[in-house]
Each structure stands twice: as structure tokens, then as C-alpha cells.
Design a protein that fits this description.
globular; 7-stranded parallel beta sheet; alpha/beta
């Protein structure tokens, strides 16, 4: 591979850049971007930049923008011949000076900065979504799709499958099959499987007939009855034989625990097969009590008495059991295969019917579109025309489908593409990343480069890591991943110094404990050593070569799991050492999530005394032991606690129902004094941060899905039970300032710290016994999802890939350090299979591994490195921990003075808030006397309106199946507190409404496909300041119903600005036209056109639909661009009064506002009128 020079590399064709840790990957991306603007004259939106996380896109945006700004500053100084005092990067100088004679460069750089918000810097998912949404609009498909950000739907599908396919089996078969259906493992395997069109699922078993199982069960029962008869006849002899230790070898289980095996036999003889399928360990115990099993344990010269025939019969029982066990295993494997097919099928149905997609569906759908023979060429041409070059960051984290997309769009078409990544840092297999996709891609590029200079670490640390990974010929196992030593080039590298002596770059510690100590004992010693090291490093004894003191925040402890992080944090807290856990732990895994769930459950169901008592017992409520005892014993004091608290719970529930979740929650924290109590606790800031994060999530879910309190509680229970994860659900950093960083190795990728502690490199990644993914070398390394019973050939291949990823994870961990890395080795029984053992041991196979190999290698490294790598033994006596950590001085803090200005007339507007400014002259409402028909007409009011709205939102308009209609409507009636007697009434209303013709649209609602309509479309758009009198003038002499607005608007000069928000009940599309529907449940005596128009005027609905029309007009103009025309693409507005629908047109109001009115509203709201 060539060394990469960012200033001279040709900007053409397909290029692969392998960037080792610390070699400036992000920097080189920014320089390539700059060169494309300067040399190729590309605009910022013509250069596609793709990375794999949202934070990474934000970082790239900032770095690229800053680079362009510095380049413009330098070029301006060159052209003006003024001295530039700013320290300008040498490569920026080269790029700019090479093009200084091109006078258009200044304009291009200025334009790039001005339009930088349009830069095409995406995650892979947002890139796919952007392409798909444009394609969807062109093909007139539904262009708004709901992206499902959690995986609870997948879990529900798995549960549906289990209910359908397993719970319907005979009880004994169902129970045994469920042992092979670990829900969490199947769920994890499904969502983390590689995205590949060539994914193979193995093995594919045919589902055996249940009759075969019943026959085996019958054979088992016959053998069991024979054994039982022998047991009853020979029991005393059997018990005496088993209890006599002289009959058995001393080290056998039966000799050590005779009574246990006799109890097993007794239980088995009493319960038969039921005992087998309820006991996990029975198979092994059963085998030990067969003739073959017990014969192995008998001492030489001893034998089974002739009076005992029981063990012969037990051999027959065990044989029958083994046949049943094999059958069940085969049946379970076949069901696993069917499960994945079932999930895929059901998910595709949800995508089609409900418009739901998971993030990975965006990649899948785009890859599928690029395979469409009729449309692929057009789509590829459009993408490659729009993007003249592509820079793909973190390419080692790609998968087959992502690579297929980039290959077809850029590599195959000969476009400019740079793939930037480091295969040594491919550590996200659990997220679906596939290192073999990277390897295959590397073979299809014309030019490969490497970055050879490390800008992060000290020269001593760079050389030490080079030496460490050069011990083995294949340090990363896979032949295609080579280790290329890099050269140190860090300008500000700081060595660690103590007592004027430079400290080793890599310091390795080996526990030296007497006897064969457990992993737990060694781990405790390591954590004590870490504590001691932190106290020592942050004392006066240690400092950097620049003279700076070492702060706690200079130190990072890298762990494998959140459990390990929590354990270390607790120890540090005990010794008053501030620390912060950084990573991807789910907020729903915290103690606070469980506590908030209990309290909210009591608010949602205040009549349930058990929930009320649980809520009072939470830390949030902070009742003392005497108060809790009074509640438990139901004393007068306790009853008063419950009564008063229950009354408050009803108040909070009412507030939740009428004013929303967050209003209720903030009131709860205030009135119950929760905030004050929490912040007074030692860890209060962290706890309160978690509680508010949970509240924000619940508020968002409640708002977006319109959940009632009980529905939100169900969602919350699922989230806590499954520790729902994802970017928005990850626990936030719980402390800022000077604190030791505790972070998982996976989360540390891309970060750097002066000093890094690695206490868990001795650990290994665990493979499931029968669920894992590997790549089959005999099938061109295609990914295989293995869901069956291993015969001993497959697991070694998966273990090899596991070890390879552990090695890459170790490389990531070690290369986070800038000055020093400390490694703590724990010698446990599986250490031989760890990445660290692979590197340090000459032979780490199970039978040949010896820890002396590790010591010999470490001695060699210490000598070869000249002391930059050092190892020493860790002894309990050498660890001295002070009782308290050194106090951290606080700065003088003072309140910041607010010097800005607050716009008093800025507010969030809606049609209703604007309508409140209308004049008092309104049309008189009709006198309604419905007392005589109140039992025949569905009740009126806000709850009734919400119920009717939700019915039309949830049902397919073509749905006529009576069972489906009833099953949808009945729960909604109950949700809003109405009697089931209204089911038929609302069914008839729904059918009449959806069957009624809409002449202006030449359609009935029942004929509109779900993909051509959107319910509850939210909008927000800015208002740039105008007076009410200006707004009124727009409607003066306006045609049709628009003129009605002028007559009822007040004429005043009140000015206001802000944000207009609202919800459109329904948007649907017919041909090229879009129509708005607003459902109205108003109760009128007669639904004639005159009455409806009076109702429209009374409630200011004319203004409402003009605002809705403007919102849609703006959106379509933005989405469709120059091809959009109001007169051509907007069809009008329907207000459908659902209680009065008839086939002759009663109950329907229609209008198409004049385009001049809508255009004038648009100009006024944007400040151009």
C-alpha cells in the first residue's frame, strides 16, 4: 500500500485509505473535502460524506466548516498581500497556494461557508432515508414513513410466534421446546444479524410430526412403568447400595452425594415424565443412574448385587428420554428457522400496511431499489448526478448491503469515492457490522493507501504498541488484516514523570497471590491497585513532562461491561474519588427507571392499594421505617398516609389526563418535594438527571403516540423489562468537571485520554451455545446465522472470529492512550482463550498453554523496549490506599448575568390562539334541544370527539369486517369512558362516512389506499412578525369563503411573531392532487349546508383550514420544488361532520381557497408582504 499524501493523491476513481488509530482520519477527510471545492469546483451539497453515528456527523460538520473558514482566511490574506497572523495548517497552505491564480476560488469558498447548512453530511441511515423519500415522492407512494426507534415490535412478534406455535403444543412438548427458546438471545440475534442479501440461516430442519413425539412418550411411559415396578420391589437394596461409599470411587459425584441421587430417584418415581421436563439437570443425573453410568463409578472388584435389576430398566428409560430429547431439539431448531421467516413476513406487512420502518429497513429498501431492473439505472444516475464525490468514513463498520449501495452508485459508475477506515478497529459486530464486507470491498478498489504517522501518542507509546503487535505474524488472525507499524508524529506529546524519572509507556501488572486464587479474588486486588494508582497519580508525586499536574479527568478506565463499570465506580465513590460513567447504558436499566415506573403506575391506577403502598415505599417518596411500618400494620397513622396520598394520586391522574404528562410530572416533583430531597443526596445530581431524562422520553412517547396513562405505563413496563436501548435511550453523562472516566472499550472508540487503565483485557467475549453468526470459508465467507445444534465443527470457526474481534477490541483500548497505558492481567481458567494471551503466549491452545509463556514474553518485551514496556507483580502488601482522596479545590462561582433581550411578542401560535383575537360579533349558535334523543345519539364533548378521531385514525377505510371493526372500536370506547352499547352506532357512522362520495375529489374514502393517506400530520412553521390589521387586509374582498374571515377578524395593530403549530386530521392523495380532511363531531339538529356554514363561522373553522392549507402549501412547495403548482397539486379542504353524513351530501363542507389568498398569507408570515 502507498503512503497517503492528502495534497497529491489523485481525486479520481475508487480509493481505500487504511487509517490506524491516531493517524488523523478526520483531518484527512476535511482536507479532501477542501480540495474538491478548490480544485474540482464542487459545491458543498455535491460532496457526499457518510459516517456511522450522529455525533460523528456533527464532529465532521464542525471540522470541515472550520477548515473551509481557515482556508478562506488564508487565501484572503494572500490576495490582499497582508500578513496572516493566524497559524495556518501547512496542507491548507499547499492546497490554496496551488490554486491562488484562480480568482473564482474565493467566491467558491465564501459560497461554501454561506451554504454549508446544505452540506450532504449524513449517517448511513439518513442518507438512505433522503434518497428513498425523494424516490417515494416521485412514485407517488406515501412520503412520510414512521421510523420505529425501538425494537419492542420485534419482541412482540417473537412473543406472538411463541403463543401461536409453541403454546398450542401438548404441554410436555411445549415446556421442553421453550428451553430452546431463550427470548432475549433470539431477540438479540435477530436484530444484530448482518445486513446481507447472502445471509444463510443454518441448519434448516423440517418440522417433525407431533405424532412421533407422542409415540416416543408412550415408549418412555412403558419403560418408566417397568423401572417403577423394579424400584418398588428393590428400593431398600438400591438405597443401601448407593449409600455404601465403599462401593464407589471416592471422587465420583454419587459417592459424595448419595442422598441427593436417591432424592432424585424418589422424585422421578413419583412424578415420571413431568419431573424430567421441569428439571434442567435431570438428564445428567438420570444417565448416572443407568447401568452404564453407575458401572463407571463402581470400584474395581465391586459390582451391582444380583438382587438389583433396577439399573437395567433405567438404561431403557434413559434411551427413550434421549430419543425424546433429540426430537425436541430438532423440533425447536425447525421452529427457530420458522420464527425468523415469520418475523420477516410480519415486519414486511407492518411496513406495507402501517408505514412503519426500523432504521435498517432504510438500508434494505435502498439496496432493493438498486436491484430493480426497471428503475435501478435511473436511480443510480440520479444519485451519482447529485453527488459528484463520496467520502465514506468508518468504513470498517460497514456490512454487505451498505457496500452494495456504494459499489453500485459510485465504484461501478467510476465516480470519485474514498473509503476511509481501519480494519483493526472493526469492533461493532454486535451492531451488525461485518469485517468480511470490508475485506471484500478492499479487493475491488483500484488504489489503496495507508496513513503512516501517529499524531496522538508519545513516541515511546507508539513504539511500544508497534512492538507488542509485532510479536505474532498474524496479530489479528485474519490474513487480510495486517499490522503496519506507524511512526510517531505528535507535536504536543507529554510523557508521564515521577521524581524526575520518565515512566514506562506501557505498565503491566500480574497478580502474585499464594495458592490457586479465583478470578474474583484477583479482580478485587486489581480494583484496589487501580484505586491506589489513581490516588498516587493525582498526588504531587506524578506530573507530565510539561510540568502539568495530573487531574482525575486525565485518567480513563476501560471496561468490557456496564456491570464492571458500576463495580469500579462504587469503589471509587467509597473513597471520595469523583468518577463518571460514559457509554451506552440504557436509561431504563437504572434504579431510577424502576422507581419512576412504580410511582407512575400508582398515579395511573390510584384505586389499587398495592400500587399505592409500593409507591410510598420508593426512595422517591422517602418514607422512614416507622412510617412504612405504620402503613404495613394498617395503623390509624398508616391509613391516613394512604388516604391522603391516594387523594393526591387522583389529582395527579386528573392533571395527566387534562394537561398532559410533563405538566403532571413537574407538579408531582414539586408538590411531593421530590426534587429537593433528591438534590440533597450525595449522588443527587446524577439521580435527578436520570429522572428528568426518563420524563422527557415518556413525554415524547405520550405525545407522539397519544397514549393514555395506562397505555404509557404498558410501554414503560416493556422498556424497563427489556432495557430498551438506542441513542435517545442511552443514559446521559452524569457528571462534568474533574472526574475519572469509566467507559466501555466499545464506547471509547474515537476518544483519547492521557492515561488509560485496562483491567479487563484478560476477559473474553462469550458465544452463545447455539446462537451465533460466523462466516463460512467454504462459501466465500458468506455470513451464516447458526441456530442449531453444533456437531463440533462450526463452533471453532465462530470462536476464531470471536478471538479476532477481541484482538481488535484490545487494539482499540490500547490506542486510546496518549501518555501511558496500564494493563492489569487476571489469570483465570479461560485466560488462555483471551486476546491478551493470544498475543503474549507462544502457544495458547487449551492443552499447551502455560502462564510461564506470558512471563517470558513480558520479559522479552521489557528488554526489547528499553524499559518503555515494564511488567511487575501485584501483591496485596504493596497496595496502600489512603482513607480519603485528596479534596478537589472548587473555583469561585458566581451567577452569570443575563444581558440579552427577550422578545415579548414571540409566542407559539395555533388557529385557536389566533381565533381568540376575533371580534365579539359572532353568529348565534342554533338552539339545540336533544334531551328527547340523548339515548339514541352518541354523547357530545371533548372526550367523544377524541374517541371518534382515533377511530378514523386507526381503522383502514376499506375495512368492513364486523369483528375487526368491533375489536377496534370497543377498546377505544372503554379508553374514553363510554359504554359498549355505542359500538354499533360508531360502526355505522364509520361505514357511512367512508362510503360517502366526495364529488370534488371524485372518490370515496373507502377506495383510498393506506399508503396514499396520512393521519394526524403535525406541522410547525415560523411567523416573522406582523400586525393583526395586516393579516385582516388579506381577506378583504377575498373570493368564496375566504372573505368570511375578514368580517370576524378584529382590526387592531397588535403585533406578534413566533411559531405556528397544528395537526391536520387527514391528508390524502388522488392522482396529482392533495386534499385535507378535518373530522368534526359537532352535534347539530340538522346537517344542512346552511347549518354547517353557520357552525364553521361560529367556531372560526374558516381560519383554521386556511392555516392548514398554507402549511401544506409550504411543505409541498419545499418537497416538490419547481414542479409544484398550487392550482395543479392542491385539491381543497373537506370538513366532514361525521354525525350527519348521508349519501346526498349532507354533513360535508368543501372549499378550495384562492391561490392569491394563500400566497399573500405566505408572504405576510415570512415578512415579505
Amino acid at each position: 500500500m502507498e503512503n497517503f499524501d492528502v495534497c497529491s493523491v489523485p481525486l479520481s476513481g475508487a480509493n481505500l485509505i487504511e487509517a490506524s488509530a491516531g493517524t488523523g482520519k478526520t483531518y484527512n477527510i476535511t482536507m479532501l473535502f477542501l480540495r474538491m471545492i478548490v480544485e474540482l469546483k464542487f459545491s458543498v451539497n455535491e460532496i457526499l460524506v457518510v459516517t456511522f453515528t450522529v455525533p460523528a456527523t456533527m464532529e465532521l460538520r464542525k471540522e470541515i466548516r472550520d477548515t473551509i473558514a481557515r482556508a478562506l482566511e488564508f487565501l484572503t490574506s494572500v490576495l490582499s498581500e497582508k500578513e496572516n497572523t493566524t497559524d495556518i495548517d501547512e496542507n491548507i497552505k499547499k492546497i490554496i497556494l496551488s490554486a491562488k491564480d484562480d480568482f473564482t476560488v474565493v467566491q467558491r469558498l465564501r459560497s461554501a461557508l454561506k451554504t454549508f447548512d446544505e452540506a450532504s453530511i449524513y449517517t448511513i441511515h439518513s442518507f438512505c432515508q433522503q434518497v428513498l423519500s425523494e424516490r417515494a415522492f416521485e412514485s407517488k407512494e406515501l412520503f412520510l414513513t414512521e421510523i420505529v426507534t425501538d425494537d419492542l415490535i420485534i419482541e412482540r412478534l417473537i412473543k406472538d410466534f411463541i403463543r401461536k406455535e409453541i403454546y398450542t403444543l401438548p404441554e410436555s412438548l411445549a415446556t421442553m421446546v421453550m428451553k430452546y427458546f431463550d427470548l432475549s438471545k433470539l431477540f438479540s440475534l435477530y436484530i444484530r444479524r448482518p445486513l446481507s442479501s447472502e445471509l444463510i440461516i443454518k441448519p434448516k430442519e423440517e418440522l417433525p410430526a407431533q405424532e412421533e413425539f407422542l409415540q416416543m412418550l408412550s415408549s418412555f411411559d412403558k419403560a418408566f412403568q417397568e423401572a417403577k415396578a423394579a424400584w418398588q420391589m428393590e428400593r431398600i437394596d438400591i438405597e443401601n447400595f448407593i449409600r455404601c461409599r465403599e462401593n464407589f470411587k471416592g471422587n465420583t459425584k454419587i459417592a459424595k452425594r448419595p442422598d441427593y441421587y436417591l432424592e432424585i430417584l424418589n422424585q422421578f418415581m413419583e412424578n415420571g415424565f413431568i419431573f424430567i421436563y421441569n428439571e434442567n439437570e435431570f438428564s445428567e443425573s438420570l444417565q448416572r443412574l443407568t447401568l452404564e453410568g453407575i458401572s463407571k463409578d463402581i470400584l474395581k472388584g465391586k459390582g451391582i448385587p444380583d438382587s438389583i435389576t433396577f439399573f437395567n430398566f433405567m438404561s431403557k428409560v434413559h434411551l427413550c428420554y434421549e430419543k425424546i430429547s433429540d426430537f425436541v431439539k430438532k423440533y425447536a431448531i425447525a421452529l427457530r428457522y420458522e420464527l425468523f421467516t415469520f418475523i420477516d413476513t410480519q415486519w414486511d406487512k407492518l411496513k406495507k400496511d402501517k408505514g412503519k420502518k426500523r432504521y435498517n429497513d432504510l438500508i434494505i429498501d435502498l439496496a432493493e431499489s438498486l436491484k430493480d431492473e426497471l428503475k435501478a439505472d435511473t436511480l443510480i444516475a440520479k444519485i451519482s448526478t447529485r453527488y459528484k464525490a463520496a467520502l465514506i468514513d468508518e468504513f470498517q463498520d460497514t456490512d454487505d448491503l451498505q457496500y452494495e449501495i456504494f459499489h453500485k452508485v459510485f465504484i461501478k459508475t467510476g465516480s470519485i469515492i474514498f473509503l476511509i477506515g481501519d480494519p483493526k478497529q472493526a469492533i461493532y459486530k454486535f451492531r451488525g457490522a461485518d469485517i468480511f464486507s470490508y475485506i471484500n470491498a478492499s479487493k475491488n478498489v483500484s488504489k489503496r493507501y495507508t496513513l503512516n504517522y501517529n499524531y496522538r501518542s508519545t513516541p515511546e507509546l507508539v513504539r511500544s504498541i508497534n512492538l507488542l503487535f509485532s510479536i505474532k505474524e498474524n496479530p489479528f488472525i485474519l490474513d487480510e488484516i495486517k499490522f503496519n507499524a506507524v511512526e510517531p508524529c505528535a507535536k504536543d506529546a507529554k510523557q508521564l514523570v515521577s521524581e524526575n524519572k520518565t515512566q514506562p509507556a506501557i505498565d503491566i501488572f500480574l497478580p502474585d497471590l499464594p495458592g490457586n486464587n479465583s478470578k474474583g479474588i484477583q479482580e478485587e486486588l486489581v480494583i484496589k491497585k487501580i484505586l491506589c494508582d489513581i490516588q498516587s497519580l493525582t498526588s504531587d508525586r506524578f506530573y507530565f513532562s510539561t510540568g502539568e499536574r495530573i487531574k482525575a479527568s486525565d485518567i480513563a478506565i476501560l471496561v468490557r461491561t456496564h456491570h464492571q463499570a458500576t463495580k469500579i465506580k462504587k469503589v471509587l465513590s467509597r473513597y471520595n474519588i469523583p468518577s463518571v460513567m460514559r457509554g451506552h447504558e440504557s436509561i431504563f436499566k437504572t434504579e431510577e427507571a424502576g422507581e419512576v415506573l412504580i410511582l407512575l403506575s400508582a398515579i395511573a391506577f390510584p384505586s389499587r392499594i398495592s400500587l399505592v403502598k409500593k409507591a410510598l415505599a420508593t426512595k422517591l417518596m422517602a418514607k422512614n421505617s416507622l412510617e412504612l411500618f405504620a402503613i404495613h400494620r394498617k395503623t390509624n397513622e398508616g391509613e391516613n398516609f394512604i388516604s391522603e396520598f391516594t387523594e393526591r394520586l387522583y389529582f395527579y391522574r386528573d392533571l395527566w389526563l387534562h394537561r398532559g404528562f410533563m405538566t403532571m410530572f413537574m407538579m408531582l416533583l414539586d408538590k411531593e418535594n421530590i426534587t429537593v430531597r433528591i438534590l440533597a443526596r450525595e449522588e443527587g445530581t446524577s439521580v435527578f438527571s436520570n429522572i428528568m431524562h426518563i420524563a422527557e422520553i415518556l413525554n415524547k412517547v405520550s405525545f407522539e403516540d397519544r397514549y393514555s396513562p395506562d397505555e404509557l405505563i404498558l410501554w414503560f413496563e416493556d422498556a424497563v423489562a427489556n432495557e430498551l436501548s438506542g441513542e435517545e435511550f442511552n443514559k446521559r453523562i452524569d457528571l462534568d468537571g474533574d472526574a475519572v472516566n469509566i467507559i466501555t472499550m466499545h464506547a471509547s472508540k474515537g476518544l483519547e485520554y492521557p492515561i488509560v487503565f485496562c483491567p479487563y483485557l484478560s476477559d473474553i467475549g462469550k458465544l452463545s451455545e447455539d446462537f451465533f453468526v460466523y462466516h463460512d470459508p467454504e462459501a466465500c465467507n458468506k455470513p451464516v446465522m447458526f441456530i442449531g445444534d453444533d456437531d463440533g465443527e462450526i463452533k471453532p470457526m465462530a470462536e476464531r472470529e470471536r478471538l479476532a474481534e477481541d484482538l481488535r477490541l484490545m487494539y482499540v483500548a490500547l490506542t486510546r492512550a496518549k501518555s501511558q497505558c496500564r494493563i492489569y492481567i487476571i489469570n483465570h481458567k479461560e485466560f488462555y482463550s483471551s486476546a491478551l494471551a493470544y498475543i503474549l503466549a507462544s502457544d495458547c491452545s487449551k492443552g499447551n498453554f502455560n502462564f510461564d509463556q506470558i512471563i517470558n514474553t513480558l520479559g522479552h518485551l521489557q528488554k526489547e523496549s528499553g524499559g518503555d514496556i515494564k511488567f511487575s507483580y501485584l501483591r496485596e502488601a504493596g497496595i496502600n490506599i489512603s482513607s480519603t482522596a485528596q479534596a478537589i479545590p472548587l473555583e469561585n462561582l458566581q451567577c452569570k448575568i443575563f444581558t440579552g433581550s427577550i422578545k415579548q411578542n414571540w409566542s407559539i401560535q395555533s388557529y385557536s390562539s389566533m381565533a381568540s383575537r376575533f371580534s365579539d360579533e359572532k353568529t348565534e349558535p342554533y338552539t339545540k334541544n336533544f334531551l328527547d334523543i340523548q339515548d339514541k345519539v352518541f354523547p357530545s364533548g371533548a372526550k367523544a370527539g377524541l374517541c371518534i378521531h382515533e377511530i378514523f385514525e386507526k381503522l383502514d377505510f376499506h375495512q368492513r369486517d364486523d369483528v375487526t371493526l368491533t375489536e377496534t372500536i370497543r377498546p377505544l370506547l372503554r379508553k374514553y369512558g363510554f359504554d359498549d352499547k355505542w359500538v354499533d352506532y360508531l360502526k355505522n357512522m364509520f361505514i357511512a362516512t367512508t362510503d360517502c362520495p366526495l364529488p370534488e375529489a371524485n372518490i370515496r374514502l373507502s377506495s383510498i389506499d393506506k399508503s396514499h393517506r396520512i393521519s394526524e400530520l403535525e406541522f410547525n412553521f415560523p411567523l416573522n412578525g406582523f400586525s393583526f390589521s395586516e393579516f385582516r387586509k388579506i381577506f378583504h374582498n377575498a373570493p368564496s369563503y375566504s372573505g368570511m374571515i375578514y368580517n370576524i377578524l378584529s382590526d387592531n395593530d397588535e403585533a406578534f411573531a413566533g411559531l405556528m403549530k397544528g395537526f391536520i386530521d387527514l391528508l390524502f392523495m388522488v392522482g396529482d392532487r392533495y386534499y385535507i380532511i378535518d373530522w368534526k363531531s359537532n352535534l347539530l339538529e340538522f346537517y344542512t349546508q346552511d347549518n354547517i356554514e353557520s357552525e364553521m363561522s361560529l367556531h372560526n373553522y374558516y381560519l383554521q383550514y386556511h392555516i392548514y392549507t398554507l402549511a401544506l402549501h409550504r411543505y409541498l412547495k419545499w418537497r416538490m420544488g419547481s414542479i409544484y403548482s398550487y392550482d395543479k397539486n392542491f385539491g381543497g379542504v373537506f370538513y366532514i361532520f361525521v354525525r350527519g353524513i348521508s349519501q346526498n351530501g349532507n354533513g360535508i363542507f368543501y372549499d378550495l381557497p384562492d391561490s392569491s389568498v394563500i400566497n399573500n398569507m405566505d408572504k405576510l408570515f415570512t415578512g415579505e408582504f
